[in-house]
Structures are given as C-alpha cells and as structure tokens.
Amino acid sequence: MKALILAAGRGDRLSEFSNGHNKCMMRLFGKPLVQYSLENAVHAGVDEIVMVVGYQIEEIINVFGNRFDNVRIRYVVQNNAKGVVDAIDRSRAAIGDSDFMLFLADEIFRNPRHGEMLEKFHAESLFVVCGVVDEPDLNQIRKTYAVIQSEDQRVYRLIEKPRNPHNNIRGTGNCIFSSKIFDYIPWTPINQSRGEKELPDLIQCAIDDGHLVKSFWIGNDYININTADDILRVETTYQAKAEWVEDYTSVAL
Residue 55: which domain range? Predict the structure, then answer.
C-alpha cells in the first residue's frame, strides 16, 4: 500500500498567511501542514509515499528530502494545477499496480483513523473507501462533497459541492483506492464550472460500473484549509483541545 499526498496547490486565497510559500508548508501548531498527512500515512503502515508537488517544489523537497520516518518519498511534479484527478493521473507511473491511500495536504483531523480505514479496505475487498466525517454545518458540506449511502455504509451517490445536502455526511479527500481506479480517469467528466475533473465524479464512475465503494468515519474536527476563515476555524477548534496541540505557535511562517 502506497500513500499519495497531493501538495501542489498554490493557495492564492491564503496569500496573507502563506507569505509566498506553498500552502501546505504553512506552520500549524509548530509543524508544516503537510506533515500531518505524512504522519498519518506512516502511522497507517504505508510502505512508500508519493507526493505530488508543484508550486515552490524546492521548499518541500529541502524540508522533507527522500524519506520521512524511514519511509521513502517519491516526488511527482504537477506544474499546472488542474485539480485532484489530474494529480492522481500524473502519479500513475509512481503508483504502478499498488493500491493507494489518498491524502490532501490541506486537510487536518483530530484522532485520525487511517489505519482502521485500511483494515476495512482489505477486510471487505473494497474498490474505494471514502473517508467521511459527521458535519452538523451544512454549509461546510457544500464546500466538499455529499455522500448518499445505505445503512451498511455502501455508497451509491457522491455529489460535488451540493446545493442542498441530504444528510450530515461530509466527504473528505482522505480515501483508499484500488489501483484499478486509474482505468476510470478517461471516463470522468470535466466539471463545466471548474474546467477540471473532480474526485467525487471519478469515484462515481467506479460505482456506476458496479464496484463496491463504502464510507468510513475518518476522525474528528475535520477542517479543509482554503481560506482565512478556515484558518480562524483551525485556531478556534484546535487551540481549545490541548491534548492534540503539542506545540502551538502560529499559522504564519
């Protein structure tokens, strides 16, 4: 099992905090943001990390090098940021025929459960596991994707940035994929408003083709960091939880 960490985003909406650095290198609680994904990947037991980089490549490579906690890091370059699915497609050669665990470098959790999610993936021979969280604020679900599922967590429909979410299940970018997911990238439609292929639509192609996809509750206090408001939510939410915050400093480098 490999980890695929997407860290190519420039983070223009966070320029006042990032000071020209790659968004994933902003320091949260004393660590670069992407380090939380690296730690979660290693704790889950992956044997190799593939990191997709783009903006300020040298900064990331200089900090993390080619190994993290004795796990090899391989870098893939995405010069023109065209979204998550394009980044996955560019990693095809590095991933090879391995199943992989996807991480978005701008997402953080409290009490992440990636190791348990991996156990579910293998135990139930799933094609995809979508990491989800319980989200009482429907406006937050509108920022990512909604999940329509059965009582046994089998996913039937994913809706990117839904106008009217039908439940409190919020999809995240933390998912596990069969290596066969690459076969569905050519069939994934381009989102007309964004001009790129979206992660929920890629997974939906596999669902529509009959593959077994389930959701898994991935952790607490999930925040996808894209705007200044998200930074404030991080400070408010996590600073209050002292057992998680080991070395709080500030979000700015």
Answer: 2-232
